Amino acid sequence: MVDSQKQLTVAIAWCLAWGDRREPQLSQDLLQQFREAIDTDREPPEPLNPYFERAKSLQSLTAEFPKSLQNLSPELVHLWQQKTKIGLVYGGATKIKQYVFEEAKLQDIRGASALLDRINLYDIPEFFGSSEGTRSARQWLENNDSTLAKALIPELLIYYKGGSFLAFCPAALIDSLADAIEKRYTQETLTANSCVVGDVFHPLEIYLGLLQNPIEKTLWLDSLQSHLTNPAVQAYFGIQANDPPDKIEAAFKSRKNFNELVAKLANQFNQRRSGCDRPSLEQNNTPDQKTRPSRRYPPMFETHPYLVRDAGDRRSSVATVTDFPEPIQFSETLARKRWVGQITKQESAEERTWFRKAGLDWDAGEVESWVNKFEQYLRDENLVQKYDSDLNLFDENQKIRDIHKREARSLREIAAADKNGFIAYIYADGNNMGQYIRDHIATPAQYEQFSNDIFHATEKSVYYAIAHHLKPYHYTPDSCSNRTNKDKVWIHPFEIVTIGGDDVLLIVPANKALNIAKTIGDRFEEILIETGRYAIEPSQKPTPHSEIHRYNPQEAPESKCCLSISSSVLITADNTPIYYADKLVSQLLKSAKKKAKDLKEKGYHGGTVDFLTLKAVTMISSNINAFRDQGLTVKLPERQQELKLYAAPYTLHELGGLLETAKAVKKSGFPQSQLYQIRSLLERGKRTAILNYRYFKVRLAADKQHFLDNDFEKAWCGAKTNNGNLAPWIQAIQKDGKTTYETLWRELVELLPFVDDPANDAPNDNDPDDSKRSDKQTTAPSSQEANQ
């Protein structure tokens, strides 16, 4: 935090030294000396000392929060009397899924995501002179607005790795910076939406929140008592008139800080994203520039009905490319996505020549692949040999061979790594983030630290999960492959679509999806705990585990981290339309997050997972909640009972138990026909299902029944009032005089084909012939077959 505090001091001093005009109030020589002093960690020149002293005087507010504005130190009073303010700019890309998933091909989705990642993670830092970006972005800014380029230094950037950014800026240039970043998004992507807003604040407001002018008019802690009956005050601070003084003071402090400034910008962001205009803050505008350019009319490329459209049937085609197995019509937007997608997948320069042949001269800049980052993670963590453990790594001289692994180019290549030929979409998002920011983030330094911690934990947890559950796959391209070279190739059997802040979307083989989702959730919390900043306070520890976990609650680990990740997993065939899969996996994520929110009221802070096995695209015609409510819920009003033929979502502990139960069912040798017959009898009632389950169970070999006894009946189905069990039902839920019974049998049966055989637990069969499978048949029958 020391470095972050120094960065904040430099940022404030720089904005004060620049002044309140577009052109700096200091000479170019002094500005150059300022930057050199920062870069070399030397004392600033003598004329700049007053600005640093004003910035340092603000640090006293971090040690002691003033209970009255009348008690401010003379230095702070003098600072308040200064006219120079500081700009704060916030924004990023909007409607991201609309841009990324508007095309049906994985290559185009990959390119769209990579292009947005390049702007977020490289171009924006380079605007501020960071070495992480590309010189092309900085050069572009200098060509468009040289004054703005001179005004931006790396210390001004607070965070940028979460899909949005927040930065300081000299007050007179905030509109220029906001317009430049919006223009960069549009110029590079052509059609992606972005929104950036900014406002000016007094330096004192960085630590004390929004203040009135004159400052005496600000409602402060010493005068708050007389306004506690005001509903607006109660809603704003989250307090009640009869709350004790210490609670009121804590609520006031958590509101009156830097977070209040960010909240104001977030409101302006939502207004501008909705098309509202606001006055420009530039002082040198002409009469026709009183407002910023409107976002009311986003970029569009209309096409005449008689013109040729691109392959996505959205925009006018600009070129017909014959370099692919089949000729493709490209608009420039689609061409950029496909080209960037090829670059990220490290396709050869020869395979990418079509872009220049089409007459397009756009430069993709520096685009880095997630797989490259993953391979670097393996080297940094010494996990290369573990990840490559199934490969024959040694040559005839017993020296390790350098086996070059390629990236998967299609969903078919990822599906080939699963024995059934299915893939899974994993969509993960963080829990409790907003509340944590409101309660614990009060300064720009804390914002920066929090952003870096979350991005690091998310990215590393994904890499860790992939490294421990997937192996390189030996793939032989078939006639449907878009690879020009049909020789066997080792590939990474996964696709990371995006990792942004606490947001993750990846595609993996179906047989490893739930393991990966669980490991991501577990590892995310472990990484945050290792920082020492996110442990649960003792008073927040959960209630008895029996009220939270349905699987062996006595064995459930204690929640340690106040932040977590919820995930959704959709198992489906590789030919399922991606836009449809994205829609379903997003619904599953909402269900998982709702489960996490409900359990948080009981003291559980961990992650949750919801999943669905989609055997056919027509399986769900509306949405998942309606499908479960209408198709998987049996209501028995005469008995005041409700039977839920599903148990999802699951906590991470329960998900681990579900995977163990699936392995136990396989070990028991339960005949498939009987598994599906029990599933079809669930909707006939609780007693019928119990009777048939017990009948089929006793017909198993005597030495196999204990697998079900230990890992299913005792683990999940114990009765509340005696030592028996309700298998295949989970113990009843009593609410509003109605009894609800859940069962995981249906999900268990659908999951079995995607659980590796315990007797032969090999994650991949590296026989090249297996990569030629084109059928999507599994050992499990479809829903219609099972019901028959």
From TrEMBL:
Name of this chain's protein: Type III-B CRISPR-associated protein Cas10/Cmr2
Composition bias type Polar residues, residue spans: 777-788
Keyword terms, alphabetized: Antiviral defense, Nucleotide-binding
Gene name in the database record: cas10
Gene Ontology terms describing biological process: defense response to virus
Pfam families: Cas10-Cmr2_palm2 (PF22335)
Source domain of life: Bacteria
Stretches assigned to the Cas10/Cmr2 second palm domain: 423-598
Keyword flag Oxidoreductase: no
InterPro entries with a match to the protein in the record: Cas10-Cmr2_palm2, CRISPR-assoc_prot_Cmr2, Rev_trsase/Diguanyl_cyclase
GO molecular function: nucleotide binding
Biased composition annotated in UniProt, kind: Low complexity: 756-765
Region (Disordered): 273-300, 756-788
